[in-house]
Amino acid sequence: MHRSRWWPIPVILALLAGLFAVPTAAQASPAVSYTNPIAAQRADPHIYKHSDGYYYYTATVPAYDKIVLRRATTLQGLATAAETTIWTKHASGVMGAHIWAPEIHYIDGKWYVYFAAGSTTDVWAIRMYVLEGTGSNALTATWTEKGQIATPWSSFALDATTFVVNNVRYLAWAQSESGIATNSNLYIARLSNPWTLATAPTRIAVPTLSWEKIGYAVNEGPSVIVRNGRVFMSYSASATDANYCLGLLTASASSNLLAASSWTKSATPVFTSNAGTGQYGPGHNSFTVSEDGQSDVLVYHDRNYKDISGDPLNDPNRRTRIQKLYWNADGTPNFGIPIPDGAHPVRLASHNYPDGYIRHWEFRGRLEANVTALADSQFRIVTGLAGSGTVALESTNYPGYYLRHRNFEVYVEKNDGTATFAGDASFFRRTGLASSSGISLESQNYPGRYVRHSSNLLYVQAVTDSLGQADATFTLE
Fold first, then answer.
1. Which of 323, 328, 304, 300 is CA-nearest to residue 315?
2. What is the SS3 assignment for the chain?
3. How confident is the model at residue 27 (pLDDT cuts 50, 70, 90)?
4. Contact 67/131 with Cβ under 8 angstroms?
5. Are 477 and 29 in contact (CB under 8 A)?
6. Mean pLDDT across the stretch 414-437?
7. Which residues are catalytic?
8. pLDDT digits 0-9 by tens, 204-213
9. pLDDT tens-digit map of 104-134
10. Do residues 230 and 216 lie in contact, with contact meaning Cβ atoms separated by under 8 Å?
11. Residues 60-114: tens digit of each pLDDT
């Protein structure tokens, strides 16, 4: 008989109650299909999905001398979209150097670009500035300078972002403050208009943890996503080399966001370099949504090498990348790891236990719920090692390792190059045996046997009844 060890009676009752609950972002959403990177030599990326059906994309260019925009109807389309320069640095004075981290927003019928800039007389006199654009298409809009965002301190300030919670518009940014021995802290204030603070700033984060102070003591690059009754503010920390990473602040959406006590900082970073996938220094992110509006998407930059010669700010090779942002059962975001370059991986959710996902645990294939070690449950569907119209499932956190059967038990193991391994790791992708919206994986070298779960473990077995069909059907997420 089929048994599931993780659903005792209290949980079953909770699941039944959940049938009548309002869906949240923590629930399953369809798989996405993207290929990384989106753009070479584009750092600090920001993507805004507008009501006209276009994604608008801007980022820091290596010369630090201008603001560029692209637009496309798909996220992948941004990779090949034409790029337009909408503004160029001043020849002298303020806004004349270090043009950094632009963000584009549409507020009350007009476009706004927030950016940081230095001066020709002092390139490190970084301050925050705003452009206003009129016109339906931001690439052809008429742009005017609204000037500097004034804060109480004349000090290093950058990475302004704006967001709305409970119909109140806020600004968050990074700035140095006299008397605090850090490079930058995070602040928040309400706005009276897109370029003017309506309240005194509140300091909500200071780099105090060890992983926030490698190279430099930095909290910068805030970005906000509001889900599940909470406000999540990601931010970047440490130097802009392989130590660069993301942290997370969390507040209740019903709290006073201008009170520092409303915010809780993650004890550990939520997104870091990963040698296994070849991604280093992931950071300065933004959030957008998939084309169907059902998946949140993480936008960020990183490099595909660790060692940098000289100042990381002079290294031009930060790339814009995107990947699906998943949600834990408790409603918190799960960033996972920076996925490998190339096609986006998927998760395979069980048809008959939709909270359960195929994952590896000590390299044994299992079906489990609440997989917070996200990458253990992410696989890239690639051409089968045995060819002949087959597919293989490559591990995300162990590239070169594949789902394969051995003695009809399923493992995740490194490809040893043998014909036996190729056959064991290759499957025919079939329409789901229990649902046409799912898929089933039929063994290439043992036709009639399918990947299925039984007592939470994965096997390659013959399917002879409706239970077996359900156990062998998976939904891509």
1. 304
2. CCCCCCCCHHHHHHHHHHCCCCCCCCCCCCCCCCEECCECCCEEEEEEECCCCCEEEEEECCCCCEEEEEEECCCHHHHCCCCEEEEECCCCCEEEEEEEEEEEEEECCEEEEEEEEEECCCCCCCEEEEEEEECCCCCCCEEEEEEECCCCCCCCEEEEEEEEECCEEEEEEEECCCCCCCCEEEEEEEEEECCEECCCCEEEECCCCHHHCCCCCEEEEEEEEEECCEEEEEEEECCCCCCCEEEEEEEECCCCCCCHHHCEECCCCCECCECCCCEEEEEEEEEEECCCCCCEEEEEEEECCCCCCCCHHHCCCCEEEEEEEEECCCCCEECCCCCCCEECCECEEECCCCCEEEEEECCEEEEEECCCCHHHHCEEEEECCCCCCCEEEEECCCCCEEEEEECCEEEEEECCCCHHHHHHCCEEEEECCCCCCCEEEEECCCCCEEEEEECCEEEEEECCCHHHHHHCCEEEC
3. low
4. yes
5. yes
6. 98
7. 44, 220
8. 999 999 999 9
9. 999 999 999 999 999 999 999 999 999 999 9
10. no
11. 999 999 999 999 999 999 999 999 999 999 999 999 999 999 999 999 999 999 9
- pLDDT of residue 25 exceeding 70, the answer is no
Mean pLDDT of 457-463: 98
Record the pTM. Answer: 0.93
Amino acid letter for position 17: A
Start-to-end Cα distance in the chain: 27
Q: Give percent of the chain with pLDDT exceeding 70.
A: 94
The mean of the pLDDT values for the chain is 94
How far, in Å, CA of 267 to CA of 281, rounded?
19
Q: Which residues pair with 226 in a beta bridge?
A: 231
